[in-house]
Amino acid sequence: MPMRYTLVSLDSYDKVNLTIMKKILIPIDLSGASENAIDFVSDVFGDIRADLHLIHVKEENEKLDDIKTAFTALENNKLIPAGVKYNFEIFPGNLLDEIQTTINTEMPDLLVMGTRGASGSKLSKALIKLSNCPVMLIPDNYHETKIKRIAYANDFKDIKDSTVLKPLLELSQAMKAKVYLLHINRDNNVQDHAEASLEYYLDYVNHEYVCITSEDIEQAIMDFIREKKIDLLTVLLRDHGSNNLSSEGRLVKDLVRHSNVPVLNLV
């Protein structure tokens, strides 16, 4: 049985009562990347009444007292000043297995992970395994605190279940952000089957369709992010393929590795 140590739990506080992201899971390794992810969540979701569920998977060479000491510093420097509601658990095991177990038991609305360097490649492979929960990846060198421009990379395929867009659309409403529906295609003859599904959910969202023709899909997305000063890139892990995009795993892996902004992976 996993060892669970609940170290702290704060009382609830009055925040704006929104329907999105009531519970946010944040795996932490007590590094700078973890701290940056917590900063991002505290700042961006500061007006949303959400519970932060922090977990640390103990490695064999780690001492429990050292972990507790490091977390005490983290809560004094980051969590308590932010005034967020949170709890923290430690248990040994494999990182991805324990994250999946926590997702299954806690059923969070969003998983937020800080990324640094080559870890993005490993995380991208894990996204398919964690496909029953939206995942937001925060680069360790990203320090913006607002989401005002969101790019959704759409591959033109009809969306079988439009409810997968709910986190994106409710987030855009909560943040009063503009959503760019970004179509990257290799020729000008691709028919868009997704627009009807998108429009149904975009009725109350400030949005704009952008179509770009390019042989290099990833580079076109990165260029658009830079030119439009995008704060969040969103991708849909399932149902890719009609526009001959890269495979789910490879596309997400490459975007995570090279993106300088957070990436929200819908499922």
Question: What would you say this structure looks like, in words?
Answer:
- The structure is a single chain.
- It contains eight helices and ten strands.
- By secondary structure, it is an alpha/beta fold.
- The relative contact order is 0.16.
- The chain is globular.
- It folds into two domains: 23-139, HUPs (Rossmann fold); 149-266, HUPs (Rossmann fold, 3-Layer(aba) Sandwich).
- Strands 3-2-1-4-5-10-9-6-7-8 form a ten-stranded mixed beta sheet, with helices on both faces.
- It is 36% helix and 23% strand.
- The longest helix is centred in the first third of the chain and has 19 residues, at 64-82.
Chain-wise SSE layout:
Blueprint: E1 23-27, H1 32-44, E2 51-58, H2 64-82, E3 85-92, H3 95-106, E4 110-115, H4 119-129, E5 135-139, E6 149-154, H5 166-175, E7 178-185, H6 195-201, E8 207-213, H7 217-228, E9 232-236, H8 248-258, E10 263-266
Parallel strand pairs: 1-2, 1-4, 2-3, 4-5, 6-7, 6-9, 7-8, 9-10
Antiparallel strand pairs: 5-10
Helix pairs in contact: 1-2, 4-8
Over the alpha carbons, how many angstroms does the gyration radius reach? Answer: 19 Å
Order of the strands making up the biggest sheet:
3-2-1-4-5-10-9-6-7-8
The CATH superfamily of the largest domain is identified as HUPs
Distance between the termini: 29 Å
Q: How would you classify the helix and strand content by structural class?
A: alpha/beta
Main β-sheet description: 10 strands, mixed
Q: Quickly count the domains.
A: 2
Segments where pLDDT lies below 50 for 5+ residues? 1-18, 239-246
